[in-house]
Write a structure and sequence with these properties.
The complex is a heterodimer of chains A (341) and B (412). Chain A is globular, with a radius of gyration of 20 Å. The two termini of chain A are 12 Å apart. A 6-stranded parallel β-sheet of chain A has the order 2-1-5-6-7-8, with helices on both faces. In chain A, strands 11-10-9-12-13-14 form a 6-stranded parallel β-sheet, sandwiched between helices. In chain A, strands 3-4 form a two-stranded antiparallel ribbon. Chain A has 2 domains: 158 residues, Rossmann fold (3-Layer(aba) Sandwich), CATH 3.40.50.2000; 153 residues, 3-Layer(aba) Sandwich (Rossmann fold). With 341 residues, chain A is of the alpha/beta class. Chain A is built from 11 helices and 14 strands. By secondary structure, chain B is of the alpha/beta class. Chain B folds into 2 domains: 168 residues, 3-Layer(aba) Sandwich (Rossmann fold), CATH 3.40.50; 160 residues, Glycogen Phosphorylase B (Rossmann fold, 3-Layer(aba) Sandwich), CATH 3.40.50.2000. Helices cover 48% and strands 13% of the residues of chain B. Chain B has 16 helices and 12 strands. In chain B, the strands form 2 sheets. A 6-stranded parallel β-sheet of chain B has the order 2-1-3-4-5-6, with helices on both faces. A 6-stranded parallel β-sheet of chain B has the order 9-8-7-10-11-12, with helices on both faces. Chain B is globular and about 80 Å long. The relative contact order of chain B is 0.10. The chains are: A alpha/beta (341), B alpha/beta (412). At the A-B interface, helix 2 and helix 3 of A face helix 15 and helix 16 of B.
């Protein structure tokens, strides 16, 4: 089958969605399909740019390429699903969150003027129309599916996607907390740094990059973490696998996250996850005292959880093993069979 | 966003007042609402959108139409046929000329001449005998900066009437299931009809159909709840059909709690209407909440109810036979009733969910208030981009772009 995987691309940015779509193409190719990635740059500001940039997708003609029919397109996140195709499948990573649950928060984008309110609603209407055209609609987590249904009335099948390919392994803990989340505000790294400040026996490694890095490094300095947190930036797969293998726990506590591969990657390394009660998607797989610890979104609670997991090796290992059993179920074979079924 | 809300409110006996009472708490979480006092002439200062609930009853909506005339805004159009409202605010205020003008504006000289006939009492009131032909919605449509409607039927009629502004379809919200015991009224099955007892609710046809059902199912019982309209002789009709014994129970207008008790007691709800003014039935929505199978007239909003929840019978020829067949089907097939009940509950929980309806209404308000500026800016950017690569207005390429914009509702 000839399949186009659709991905909006914020130039110079790379995160979970980029890894996911790259691997989806690889996995489709590995199963004998003729697959390719179709990417269009995306900028969502100022003003109505979010709509005009989304509209670019509508002008694409993906019915065929170079004289050969494209049988199916797989759109992933806003606004790639605005595309027009007779066999449009959507594997929804996320909608444009500023128009939904982030509205009215410090992460929101739109002010109170009638024009900005209307712009937000127009994005929602665009979703309703474009997602309503999908011949099949999947969402990467219960959180994404629930938000979609609440906002548009559309129902999606939950289809988690497998984490990135790494040489996952389990090794004895070196005692540090790992975060591999992209450094932006929604990933809530502040909470981890503040937890470290409360307990001077805690150490952390942050193995990622992002627009919030400078602020977070400044915060770490200002609250006196004195080398107990190490910002390694974006690391290669080998190093990331090593960090997963040797950490005591993985911190993954974004605000109302859509999905996030962090927990799956931790589990495949046999490590427990610390998350918060308001984290959204991760709660599909992080169950308190089963596969990790789910705590209140407060620094003291995160600190206590990290300390407890570091000091209770056997429990931490048991949580990691239980998590691995869950992660092992999420395979490309199963996901692609459902996606193309 | 600051919204001025013009609507009938309790203690007015109005379905739209009930609707607003249900909706306002949820809507108030999404926009800053000022519920305008009855009789207010204008929206308060500082509001960003005035929202006018317009229905066909001049007592409930005359003052709202007056305010709309002074300050145009969004209209929640509960009925498309507004002839009774227009007659009320013209003839009812001793302004026969206003009525004639309204008829002429929308129906030309013929309309004016018919109006003279009505004023001279040479013709029966058009709002009673031919309202669908003379809806008189034009003035309201002309003043509305955007429309909220409950049905495709009203949306279609507004477009047919030439309305070009934004129309947002927002379903009627469903009430939460009440904590009441069913009223103690027997019947196997008990069939309920709620609302005024008159010809436009198709009570004559219902009584005839029910009489036929009773001949085969002596345990069936019909419950009529609502005031008998002047000139409608219910007792005589019952007598003529042999239904004046135990077969039919009538209760007049009842309070909200009693209404729910009676509705809960019924196995089947009948919600008939012809002619329709384009309205949505609050009692039919209540039936969905309670999970009751419905028999409806196949007109307007009623015809849009999914087959899974309602058996629709067209008005006119064969109507009595159709109603009798529907009642017989539901009487003889309890499993069908159960399937329809489950589908009704699901529809109330999904399409008519109160929070979802409030969210969609708030979205509609925001789109009506600021959507024009958003559409203009979007179109300007697309047009400039097209022009900068030589795509001229009116060219094939420009038409293609316009078509694609329209597909995703970005066409302005």
């Amino acid at each position: 089958m000839r399949i186009a995987v659709l991905r909006p691309q914020v130039p110079f940015a790379r995160g979970g969605a980029e890894i996911f779509t790259d691997e989806l193409v690889d996995e489709l190719l590995a199963r004998g399909h003729d697959a390719d990635l179709v990417s269009v740059p995306f900028k969502w500001y100022p003003g109505t740019r979010v709509l005009t940039q989304a509209f670019l997708w509508r002008l694409l003609d993906l019915e065929e390429a170079d004289g050969r029919t494209i049988d199916l397109v797989v759109a992933t996140k806003f606004p790639s699903y605005v595309v027009r195709h007779r066999e449009k499948r959507v594997w929804l990573v996320h909608q444009f969150r500023q128009a939904y649950e982030l509205d009215g928060t410090e992460l929101g984008q739109y002010g109170p003027s009638p024009e900005e309110r209307a712009l937000r609603r127009r994005v929602q209407e665009l979703d309703r129309v474009a997602l309503g055209e999908a011949t099949r609609l999947f969402a990467t987590s219960t959180n994404v599916a629930g938000r979609l249904e609440r906002s548009t009335g559309l129902r999606a099948e939950v289809l988690p996607h497998p984490p990135q390919r790494l040489a996952y392994r389990h090794e004895p803990s070196a005692g540090f907390v790992l975060s591999a989340s992209r450094l932006d505000r929604a990933k809530r790294l502040d909470l981890l740094l503040e937890a470290l400040a409360l307990d001077e026996t805690l150490e952390a490694v942050i193995a990622s990059d992002g627009p919030d890095r400078e602020r977070l490094e400044q915060l770490a300095r200002s609250i006196g973490l004195d080398g107990r947190v190490r910002f390694e930036g974006r690391v290669d797969g080998e190093r990331l696998a090593e960090l997963y293998a040797t950490c005591s726990s993985v911190y993954y506590a974004p605000v109302d996250e859509d999905f996030g591969m962090g927990p799956y990657e931790a589990f495949l390394s046999g490590k427990p996850v610390i998350t918060t009660t308001d984290a959204g998607g991760p709660l599909d797989v992080v169950a308190d005292r089963q596969t990790g610890l789910v705590v209140a979104p407060e620094a003291a609670a995160v600190a206590a959880a990290a300390t407890w997991l570091r000091e209770h090796d056997e429990d931490a290992a048991a949580f990691g093993i239980a998590g691995k059993a869950l992660a092992d179920e999420v395979t490309w074979d199963r996901a692609i069979a459902r996606l193309l079924g | 966003m600051k919204v001025a809300y013009f609507s009938p409110m309790p203690p007015e006996a109005s379905g739209i007042a009930d609707y607003s009472v249900l909706l306002l708490p949820e809507l108030g979480k999404r926009v800053e609402l000022t519920v305008v006092k009855r009789g207010a002439r204008r929206p308060p200062r500082g509001v960003e959108l005035a929202v006018y609930h317009i229905g066909n009853n001049p007592d409930a909506h005359g003052w709202i139409l007056d305010a709309l005339r002074r300050a145009p805004g969004a209209v929640v159009l509960h009925d498309f046929v507004l002839h009774h409202l227009v007659a009320g605010v013209t003839i009812g205020r001793r302004n026969g000329h206003g009525y004639l003008d309204a008829l002429e504006r929308e129906h030309g000289v013929v309309g004016r001449l018919l109006g003279h006939g009505v004023l001279d009492k040479r013709l029966p009131p058009l709002w009673e005998v031919r309202p669908e032909e003379f809806p008189l919605a034009g003035e309201v449509l002309g003043l509305a900066t955007g429309l909220l409607v409950h049905s495709r039927h009203v949306e279609g009629r507004a477009r047919e009437a030439g309305y070009e502004g934004p129309i947002v379809r927002v379903p009627h919200p469903a009430w939460p299931e009440p904590d009441v015991e069913p009223a103690a009224i027997g019947g196997a099955p008990l069939i309920g009809s709620f609302g005024n007892v008159n010809s436009s609710k198709r009570i004559p046809q219902l009584l005839e159909a029910f009489a036929r059902l009773r001949r085969e199912h002596a345990e069936a019982r019909l419950l009529l709840v609502g005031a008998v309209s002047p000139g409608f002789d219910l007792d005589r009709r019952l007598q003529r059909l042999g239904l004046d014994g135990a077969g039919v129970v009538h209760e007049g207008r009842v309070d909200e709690r009693r209404l729910w008790e009676l509705m809960t007691a019924c196995d089947v709800h009948v919600s008939l209407r012809s002619p329709t003014m384009g309205e949505t039935s609050g009692t039919a929505i209540r039936a969905l909440t309670l999970g009751k199978p419905l028999v409806v007239t196949g007109v307007g909003w009623f015809a849009e109810l999914p087959d899974a929840v309602a058996l629709a019978v067209p008005p006119g020829d064969g109507e009595v036979e159709g109603l009798a067949a529907a009642l017989r089907l539901l009487t003889e097939h309890p499993a069908l009733r159960e399937r329809m009940a489950a589908a009704a509950r699901e529809l109330a929980r999904s399409e008519h969910d109160l929070t979802r309806v409030a969210e969609r209404q708030a979205a509609a308000f925001e789109l009506i208030a600021g959507g024009g500026a958003v559409a203009d800016e979007t179109l300007r950017d697309v047009t400039l981009a097209a022009a900068s690569v030589g795509i001229a207005p009116g060219s094939v390429e420009a038409s293609e772009i316009a078509r694609r914009l329209s597909e995703v509702d970005l066409g302005g």
